[in-house]
Design brief:
InterPro entries: JAMM/MPN+_dom (IPR000555), MPN (IPR037518), STAMBP/STALP-like_MPN (IPR044098), USP8_dimer (IPR015063). The model is unreliable at 143-160, 209-232 and 245-335 (pLDDT under 50). The protein has two domains: 1-160 and 201-259, no CATH class; 319-325 and 346-532, Cytidine Deaminase, domain 2, CATH 3.40.140.10. 38% of the residues lie in helices and 13% in strands. Strand 4 (348-349) and strand 5 form a beta hairpin. The radius of gyration is 24 Å and the shape is globular. Helix 1 (16-23) crosses helix 3 (57-74) and helix 2 packs antiparallel against helix 3 (57-74). The strands form four sheets. Strands 2, 6, 7, 8, 11, 12, 13, 14, 15 and 16 form a ten-stranded mixed β-sheet that branches. A two-stranded parallel ribbon has the order 1-3. By secondary structure, the chain is α/β, with parallel strands linked by helices.
Length: 536
């Protein structure tokens, strides 16, 4: 199971023990660079923060426990775990775990109460079903007796759950909901700035890591003493690992895994598009009915042969500009979130049967990216950008295109080390999820090369819904939106040790089209920001 996962706001409440058991069920591959796993751990904290904002404490709890499992149980299994290069980041990750214990303690009683309410409603439903069956048996000849009264779904618990929708079929509603929620979050962020609290401090508080100087060993001991009767064995064991590095202790932490569902989902082949896009248009002017998110321009991912991953963002003055028009800004939204009223269903499934959340993509984003890439395209040089967004009501909305500092050739494009750092710093400070990457093939057709496959695998480690967009302006089709199959594509690429710049893979069907009927839907009018972090 992937680190990040689909979660349904109206899914049945789980016991704390069940949540902790599910948190332990994810795949870890030591062959993947430790730096990628460290970034994946940070993404778990971001998803937990977003789930908490949406009121989904069950998934926030799961992500924090999973983060503890990854940091304390899996990281020590990596061959580079004791490399001094990662010492600081690993220490920081452990501090995240330690300080998140308090939040888990705070949430646990609420989750227990929610689960007990659910169990009570289920018991009422069983009683009601038995009564209806008895009535049906007593008056089998009457057609009216066959209609059963709603029971469980009129319970107060279910009245509180959001309406379930399909983000692709209800794209106008999805886009409007995203705009409202993003404005609400921006207003909250603005209020913290006015209070003199930096975005970095807010992000740290959400992750439970502000008090970095608290005593360490004693803190864990005291918390574990108070948790002797807790149902959350996963967190107890995680805390114990801060002091116990024994391999046996780690083995005992991991529960038996459940077999994955057999359901599969087949994507169609990439179709030839009837019309190619006019990439070289002047900067897009929105139509009267379309609005795009005002903000800095986005960045681009690295195409390292094995460890190409998304870049991070260092402190600097960013060149930012809006790509979505000049709509008059709306007044600050109310503090309550409309996102709580809706939840978007999974739109597709991996080849292993795991659900994929819908990814909403602004249709104008490709053209904006190609306008930025045009100088390189004219010189037959590749350009890449990073797709970033946020999670709203169980759907991912891409609202940032980040262009990191990068080095390009006619066949490759790699982010620089500084560009990588700057990208992730930027995303961390704004609670952005890295949703994939976009890059050009100035002379080649629309496909994922072996280098592209390794780059894409890094993004899908962090987020199973992560996508790879290829723009080939001189060919038809002139673009494609892909994801690695899971399996066989993702595990095959992650376990590939070939060192050549371009190399063949023995496996077939390594990637597939992700556009509908896949998990990616275009959201006309979805606003986005472009962040250009290139130094030249």
């Amino acid at each position: 199971m992937a680190l990040s996962r689909h979660h349904h706001a109206a899914m049945r409440p789980l016991s704390v023990k069940e949540i902790s058991a599910q948190a332990s069920q994810f795949d870890f591959t030591p062959h993947v660079a430790l730096q990628k796993w460290i970034r994946a751990a940070k993404m778990l904290l971001t998803e937990a923060a977003i789930c908490e904002q949406d009121g989904n404490l069950q998934m926030a709890y799961l992500y924090l426990v999973r983060h503890a499992e990854l940091v304390l149980d899996k990281f020590p299994l990596h061959p580079d775990y004791r490399d001094p290069l990662y010492k600081h980041e690993l220490q920081e990750a452990k501090r995240h775990v330690r300080h998140n214990f308090e939040r888990l303690d705070t949430w646990r009683p609420r989750l227990i109460e929610q689960y007990e309410r659910f169990e009570s409603s289920m018991e009422r439903r069983r009683v009601e079903n038995r009564r209806v069956e008895q009535e049906r048996e007593a008056s089998r000849s009457s057609t009216q007796s066959s209609s059963r009264r709603p029971s469980m779904f009129e319970d107060d618990f279910y009245d509180d759950q959001g309406q379930s929708l399909d983000a692709g079929d209800d794209s106008a509603l999805a886009v409007d909901l995203a705009h409202r929620e993003i404005r609400r979050r921006d207003a909250t962020r603005q209020s913290t700035r006015q209070a003199g609290i930096s975005p970095a401090t807010v992000a740290s508080r959400r992750r439970g890591t502000v008090e970095l100087d608290t005593d360490r060993g004693g803190y864990v001991d005291a918390r574990l003493d108070r948790r002797q009767d807790s149902r959350d064995s996963g967190v107890q064991e995680a805390g114990r690992h801060l002091q116990d590095d024994s391999r046996q202790g780690r083995a005992n932490l991991i529960p038996a895994r459940r077999s994955a569902p057999s359901r599969t989902y087949d994507y169609p082949a990439v179709p030839a598009r009837e019309e190619t896009m006019d990439w070289r248009m002047p900067s897009l002017q929105p139509s009267s009915g379309r609005r795009t998110l005002d903000g800095p321009p986005p960045a681009r991912p690295a195409k390292d042969q094995h460890d190409a991953f998304t870049p991070a963002l260092p402190p600097k003055q960013f060149e930012s500009y809006s790509r979505s028009g000049t709509a008059t800004p709306s007044p600050p939204p109310p503090p309550t979130s409309d996102a709580l009223r809706y939840t978007f269903k999974p739109s597709a499934y991996t080849e292993a049967g795991d659900p994929l959340r819908t990814v909403m993509l602004p249709p104008e984003l490709r053209r904006e990216f190609m306008n930025l890439a045009d100088p390189n395209t004219q010189r037959n040089l590749e350009t890449c950008g990073i797709l970033c967004g946020t999670l709203i009501s169980n759907a991912l909305f891409i609202n940032h295109l980040i262009i990191p500092d990068q080095k390009s050739t006619s066949d490759t494009c790699d982010t620089t080390e500084e560009g990588d750092t700057a990208l992730f710093d930027y995303c961390d400070s704004r609670d952005l999820l890295v949703c994939g990457w976009i890059h050009t093939h100035p002379t080649q057709s629309c496909f994922l090369s072996s280098r592209d496959l390794h780059t894409s695998s890094g993004y899908q480690i962090m987020l199973p819904e992560a996508i790879s967009i290829v723009c080939a302006p001189r060919h038809n089709p002139d673009f494609g939106i892909f994801r690695l199959t899971a399996p066989p594509g993702l595990p095959a690429v992650l376990n590939c040790h070939q060192q050549g710049l371009f190399h063949p893979h023995a496996e077939t069907d390594l990637y597939t089209d992700a556009l509908r009927p896949g998990h990616v839907a275009e959201g006309p009018g979805l606003r986005f920001e472009v962040i250009d972090l290139r130094k030249s």
